[in-house]
Amino acid sequence: MRNPYEVLGVPQGASIDQVNAAYRELARKYQSETYTNGQLSGIAEKKMQELNDAYDAIVMGGQTSASSQSGSDFGGYSRSTHNTTSGGQSEFSDIRSKIKSGRLDDAQILLDGTPDYKRNAEWYYLKGTIQQRRGWLTEAAKNFEAACNMDPQNSTYRAAYNNVNESATGGFRTERKRKNGDGGCSACDVCSGLLCADCCCECFGGDCIPCC
Amino acid sequence: MLGYVRAYKPDMKIKDYEIYKGAYCTLCRNLGRRYSPIAQLFLSYDFAFAALLRLAAADSCTFVKKRCPYNPAVRCLKCCNSAEFDIIADALIITVYYKLRDNLSDKGFLSRLVAVLLFPVVALMHKKAKKSFPEGERIIAASVSAQALAEKENASLDRAADASAKALAEIFSFGMTGDNKEVMKTLGYMTGRYVYILDAADDLADDVKKGNFNPFTGEVSDFNDKAQTAKFADTVTVQLNMTQAQALAALDLYETKRFNGILENILLDGLEASAQRVRDKLVGNKDNKKREISV
């Protein structure tokens, strides 16, 4: 395992405040919605795991913490993965498994071979997923939109569509610049600080904010 | 790459700027030493970015101060990791070669004249580059033919951007291992896609006039109609934002040993500034030309 201080990017023997700040900053990066469904989602998850381990190692002095045993991953920071529907019920389970194992070309061929009358919302969703993996963002957005229109109730399709379009306004730039800026403390920082403090409390058996 | 990927100076630390310029100078020296002074004509900041990006993950990186042969009064930084710069310099020459070969069949008289004059020299340099970086030659040649095919079939934006984006992905990730290879593939792909979209938007008026392929053809029928060009600029901005977000997300996962500030400056503010320049040109916004700075 790598040196936990190195993983967090703080000097050896840094104070708990520094460690917390670094953890928060990196967790925000690694859990960005931008990775969802994309080519890098696996790497982002791996890094998040590494970060959690490093944080545990520093804060709990190397013992496995209660948080990772119970799988709660420090309360507010557990990633909500948009679970794909299980292969069994799906008409396209073969294609899904191919996408999962990264064989995009094979999946594409199978998908394109599907006759028109069989092309339902899921078909468009899978098509969009393949395109997103390839980096074809425009067409991915179009296909996710088609999937949403055909099946408006499905939250997976909706989430995928929102994910692609979330960055369209360029809001991510303001967020990053605020972070790089004068280091002021916004309302969001106050809340996330409180949440983190609560997570620490929970580790030791207490709970200040019962709802999370 | 065409001068779109560069640092945003006002937001840069002075020490970062010196290193950035140092990478540019090192590339210039490399071209002069390994090719010829003519090769230095094709130098651009985009390739300096590529070199810095790859150097960021290198085990060691040292700079020394050297006098510039063209301006001996100035001493600038020179990077000692010449292997990284060799690759980038070779890639630059190969790119220039294919660009010039494309220009030979161009319709404009002036660009064809320049291409005809430079082509023999560049062809000689290309021979050397091909030998020293055969993978680069394979990657770029494949991208050029894929691009030609996509243009012939009047491809959609995604497919038209795919060829050059893939080439950049391959070049950026060349020789990398593990997670960094995957990360650099995405980062390269998204950077290439960004540049392609921006360049296509920038050249739209020209391409429509000359009848060249452009994925945005048909989006604007009258370039003097402000409402139309503004709407088109918005469409392009949406595409660019989506691509930039992916590139920045990839940068967050890149395990670097140095240069974080410079790389983020280029991919965040630098790209945005380039997009703003193109946008101003599209909507005919002359006010920004005055370079007034209000603080």
Number of helices of chain A: 11
What oligomeric state best describes the polypeptide chains here?
Answer: heterodimer
Mean pLDDT of chain A: 77
How would you sum up the global shape of chain A?
Answer: elongated
Number of helices of chain B: 9
Helix content of chain A: 55-70%
- Which band does the percent of strand residues of chain A land in? under 5%
Strand order in the sheet with the most strands of chain B: 1-2
Poorly predicted parts of chain B: none
What share of the residues of chain B does DSSP label as strand, in percent? under 5%
Reading the helices and strands of chain B in chain order gives HHEEHHHHHHH
Biggest interface goes to: A-B, 32 and 31 residues
Largest sheet of chain B: 2 strands, antiparallel
In whole angstroms, the N-to-C terminal distance of chain B is 33 Å
Instruction: Give the fraction of residues assigned to helices of chain B.
Output: 55-70%
Principal-axis shape of chain B equals globular
**Main β-sheet of chain A: number of strands, strand sense, barrel status?**
none
| Spans where pLDDT lies below 50 across 5 or more residues of chain A | 62-88
Task: Describe this structure in a few short sentences.
Chain A has 212 residues and is mainly alpha-helical. Chain A has helices at residues 4-8, 16-30, 41-59, 66-70, 93-100, 104-112, 121-134, 137-150, 155-166, 171-180, 187-203.
